[in-house]
Each structure stands twice: as C-alpha cells, then as structure tokens.
C-alpha cells in the first residue's frame, strides 16, 4: 500500500449533483436511481452544501411502502427546501490529499463523504465505501 497515494485515485469523478432550487422529491429519486447516499449541492461549479440520504430520512418516510406514507412524504418534502436540509459547514479536500489523510478525517468526523474541491471547483467526492473498496483491493 503506497503511503502517498492521492485521493484522486479512488474518488468518484462523475458526481451526481443538485442545485439549491431543486426539490427534495427530485433528490430522493436521484438517491434511489443511482444507489448513492450523498449528493453535493452546487451553485455553478462551486459546492455550497451536501445532502445525505440520512438527512432526507430524518424529515420523511422515504423507506415507507404504503400509499398514505407517500402522500405524507410529498407534503413534508414541500415544507422544506434543499438549502434548509443540506449540511452547509463543509469539510472538503483537494484531489492531491492523500488517502491516509482522507481516512483520518472520515474516522474522526461524523460524516461519511467528503467533497473533493480544486480551485473552488467540485471535482469529485470520496466516501467511506470508496475507502473500504480501496483497502479490499490492497489484499
């Protein structure tokens, strides 16, 4: 295992994003369609927040299966905007940050994804799953 491997080696570069004007129903569709748990919220090329599937679950019945829950979910989604629900105080890394540094950050913080930002532009996202997959490939 190389000690200085940059996070650019394992990050996702084709990032699914949202805009603060998108709605929460659209966010839920993206989470489910792409089987992801974190979506950066952007304004132009700059990241302004990150929405996690857990954030969405906190205010909804997103996993409920009955028809009534879906009606309630739509009402709840219409009560909030993405900007109100997303995390705004972000920690980000650059694409040259080492995988070890990313692992240390994720191990000590209460989140599971980090936006990768170069020159104020979102260039990727790295998650705990990316780290686990990287470690698996090492063995």
Uncertain spans: 65-70
The structural class is: alpha+beta
What is the succession of H and E elements?
Answer: EHEEHHHHEEH
Oligomer: single chain
Portion in beta strands: 15-25%
CATH architect. name:
Roll
Q: Biggest β-sheet: count, sense, barrel?
A: 3 strands, mixed
What's the arrangement of strands in the largest beta sheet? Answer: 1-2-3
Question: In words, what does this structure look like?
Answer:
- This protein is an alpha+beta fold.
- It has one domain: Roll (CBS-domain), CATH 3.10.580.
- 40% of the residues lie in helices and 20% in strands.
- The chain contains 6 helices and 5 strands.
- The protein has helices at residues 24-34, 53-59, 67-79, 82-85, 99-108, 128-138; strands at residues 18-19, 38-43, 46-52, 113-118, 121-127.
- Strands 1-2-3 form a 3-stranded mixed sheet. The chain has a two-stranded antiparallel sheet with strand order 4-5.
- β4 (113-118) and β5 (121-127) form a beta hairpin.
- The longest helix is centred in the middle third of the chain and has 13 residues, at 67-79.
- The relative contact order is 0.22.
Task: Compose a concise summary of this entry.
The chain is α+β, with helices and mostly antiparallel strands and 139 residues long. The protein has one domain (7-138): CBS-domain (Roll). It has six helices and five strands.
């Amino acid at each position: 295992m190389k000690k200085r491997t940059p996070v650019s080696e394992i990050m996702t570069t084709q990032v699914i994003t949202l805009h603060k004007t998108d709605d929460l129903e659209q966010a839920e569709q993206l989470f489910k369609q792409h089987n992801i748990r974190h979506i950066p919220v952007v304004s132009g090329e700059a990241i302004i927040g990150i929405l996690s599937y857990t954030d969405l679950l906190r205010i909804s019945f997103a996993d409920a299966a009955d028809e009534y829950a879906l009606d309630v979910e739509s009402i709840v989604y219409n009560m909030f905007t993405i900007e109100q629900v997303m995390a705004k105080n972000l920690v980000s890394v650059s694409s040259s940050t080492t995988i070890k540094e990313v692992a240390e950050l994720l191990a000590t913080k209460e989140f599971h994804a980090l936006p990768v930002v170069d020159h104020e532009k979102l260039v990727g996202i790295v998650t705990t799953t990316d780290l686990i997959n990287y470690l698996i490939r090492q063995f």
